[in-house]
Amino acid sequence: MRGKKRIYYIIGGILLVLAATWGITHLVRKDRPADMLDEVEMTDSAEVEAITYKYGIPTDRYNVNYGIVEDRQNLSSILQRHGLSVNDVHRLNERAKGTFDARKVKSGQAYAVFTTKDSLPRTRFFVYEESPKTYIVFDLRGEYSVRRGENPSEWKRQEVKGQVESSLWVAMQQSNTSPQLAMKLSDIFGWTIDFFGLQKQDEFRVIYEQEYVDGNSLENFHILAASFAHEDSLYYAIPFVQDGEELYYNERGNSLEGAFLKAPLDFYRISSRFSNSRFHPVLKRYRAHHGVDYAAPTGTPVYAIGSGKVIAKGYEAGGGGNYLKIKHNGVYVSTYMHLSRFAKGIQVGSQVAQKEVIGYVGATGLATGPHLDFRVHENGKPINPLTIKSQPKKPISPENKAAFTLVCDSLVRELQQL
Predict the structure, then answer these.
(1) 212 in helix, strand or coil?
(2) What is the DSSP string of 255-291?
């Protein structure tokens, strides 16, 4: 009986060793393409664990040269410098179809070349960094192949609190936060707050997540909660998923998104307001100006303030220059003038979505400098675009009210404690 037990112990020990070895091997191989497996000769666990991977490639087995795509360089010129023939590059371009257009290699982007450690090095991989997060691997072994990869990223929770002195953009910089976060806030509060009318001492508080790759921050944000004190009012933005869609709501459960944006472009000053008697800088006389002028650099994107249909597109030499008109419903029509050009595909009859780019700021027609002349008509009569009322999207439903209240109360407390 004792002999049988000893045999069982021996067999069990062998099985445990095999299981542990299998686990280590598969742990190291996790998240690597199948065609990478032939790059590693498995010997013992210590050697396997020492292997370093980048882009899914075992860097220890190659010499790696990093570079930046220079002006007027393309994939062909780079690869030919590393030993590939014109025919090789052509074959690689064919393999890349459906994965990456090799003509879109841009100057300023990083790349890496992996060569063998032989006395006569041979290029085995070329990796083009399409963005800080994504890359393209050109596998130059065998029949050649091309695949797209993504660097692992992490989202870090952060907080910021600050006051506006000149602009929200500058305030973000002064708070050691990316100014791009100001763009996110304008997207969220754009139906509620006129960001062209911010005042000194307006205060913002934001709890957010920012994406990082290799310790470097990306301009990708997710607002977890925000508040904005403006004109003696305090506005909250609380995210909540309802009917499969995440929207931002105020503390009363009403959606912050409305039928119309407060402004048709981002973060530029108002140079002229709605008036029945304004001195025209070109004509040198007083006349009605039933719109709002937004001074902005030529080429600044212009958005449709709401969804609708393009009913006019043209050029007015002695007035509005390149202009568009959008009919939003049976009541409202918006007009955009002095555009430098129209967005691609915009035609009379086009259906446009809210905040879709419809054109770009310019100085066409009767204009002294680049700006957007923006107008709104209500039932055929001009109204001040800055006072247009916008109905919000549907509020928190009764069945979700309790869950929203719990989330809202918690986030509001966090914002108040910043």
Answers:
(1) strand
(2) BS-BSS-S-SSSS--EEE--EEEEE-TTT-SEEEE-S
Give dist(CA 294, CA 269) in Å, integer.
6
> What SS3 class is residue 141?
coil
Q: Please state the pTM of the whole predicted model.
A: 0.62
State how far the Cα of 105 lies from the Cα of 271, in Å rounded to an integer.
40
> What would the pLDDT profile of 42-78 be if each residue is shown by its tens digit?
334 444 457 888 999 998 999 999 999 999 889 999 9
Q: Which two tokens stand for residue 232?
A: 């003696």
Q: Is 238 helix (H, G, I), strand (E, B) or coil?
A: strand
Cβ pair 309, 350 in contact under 8 A:
yes
Nearest to 389 by CA among 331, 335, 337, 327: 331
Identify the DSSP state of 392.
B
Alpha-carbon gap, residue 189 to 392, rounded angstroms: 12
- Report the C-alpha gap between 161 and 176 in whole angstroms: 10
In whole angstroms, what is the distance from residue 414 CA to residue 206 CA?
10
- Distance from C-alpha of 266 to C-alpha of 180, rounded to nearest angstrom: 11
Residue 89 CB neighbours (<10 A): 19
Nearest to 287 by CA among 295, 299, 278, 296: 278
Question: DSSP 3-state assignment of 69?
Answer: coil
Q: Give the H/E segment covering residue 87.
A: helix 86-96
For 191, residues 6+ apart whose C-beta sits below 8 A from its C-beta are: 256, 257, 258, 260, 261, 262, 390, 392
Contacts of 199 (CB under 8 A, 6+ apart): 164, 230, 231
DSSP 36-57: GGGG-----HHHHHT--EETTE
DSSP H or E stretch at residue 89: helix 86-96
At 317, is the secondary structure helix, strand, or coil? coil
pLDDT tens for each residue of 7-19: 555 555 555 545 4
